[in-house]
# Entry
Amino acid sequence: MKPAFTLSLLLCWALALTSLQAQKSEPLAPQGVRLPGGTPADLIGEWSKSNVSTIDFVNPNTGAHGDPSGERFNVRFFSDGHYKLGWLLQSSLYSCTSTVFGLKNGRYTAEGNTLRMNDIDSVLTSKDTCHREWNYEKHPPLRHSTYQ
# Structure
């Protein structure tokens, strides 16, 4: 993977994790109710952040439109203490599209203003229509993260 692509991927991932000014779906438990183990019930549910932009490129030979560019970050907290976290980044330029998708599963705890997330499994998939060497699937190191 090229250093510039790796750096931009890491920056986007950090931005997604730190800017969780997300839209939350309806909670699965009533607001203000604490679940067994001290997990705040209003954390339970799906949180997401996305940004998409269209491209006006049209291939003059085929009439096909260019793919959109954007990103989507999604995390779902379940009442049994596990989470699923997904992230998609797609960048298009003319007829080339690069797509990176990450998926993590793990366990979490929440106490007061502290959220701890421990990955159980993780996969990162990259696909590029113009650079075959950027097509791969990897299993990044598992992380134990604390947010306050």
